[in-house]
Structure of UPF0042 nucleotide-binding protein:
Amino acid sequence: MRIILITGISGSGKSVCLNVLEDAGYFCVDNLPPTLLRALVETRMEEDAADLAVAIDSRSAGSLAGLPVDIQFLKDQGHDVKVLFLTAKTESLINRFSETRRSHPLSHRLHAGHNPNDRLTLAECILREREMLSSIEKLGHVIDTSGLTANKLRGWVKEMVESAKAPLTLMFESFAFKFGVPLDADLVFDVRVLPNPYYDLTLRPFTGRDEPVIAFLQALPEVEDLYSDIQNFVEKWLPAFKADNRSYLTVAIGCTGGQHRSVYMVEKLTRHFQKTERVVLRHRELA
């Protein structure tokens, strides 16, 4: 059975993720206590079900400690288990809770001191939740949803579903350093040392996908040198990540604005590696 476990920080998009999987034909269960996971899988097997998606969050904090053992048990039983851990920067989470006017799930469960009426602030709830879930974050692939629209997140999750059958999915993601390094990056490369097309007014409106910027960067020897170094590094260590039974490897390439150099580099790396690997392409700062 294919099983996708969705967990992570409240407000990071777990409901959006679960809805995408439901549309893809998965039987979905939200907020399942981890202690019931094995029984649920057994029940679904008796019903000859093929795909199962389960959301588990901090509301089941008391039983999260046993989740790694349950996941390994299911894998030993022959199930294809993938874990998606959704997270986001604190400021993004605060904005989302403010927009929806919903309270944090922990706000009614935890208090600041000995007085039960002293509620934690939203930022304190988020910090406590990060601490609660820190032990299971490393169990799967981390998706940083900071600044993402719900529609863009849906697209990313669909890519995840499509790539679930591959032994390892290699992800190349461009980003802008001025907006922060992606939280889900496994490898980060900085291409800000390269000449910036932004300072050429004729190139500024374009991106690294457009021919004028491509021609500008291709003409620079240092661009090819840096590309070759990144390509060779990934090719050298990719077998080790596969041997470590990784499901996903995210390679993030950053420049100042996430529009030109990083986009060009990610596009070129994707074209090279998709000849032999399952590759997913992301441009975080592009619409």
Observations:
- Residues 221-243 form the longest helix (23 residues).
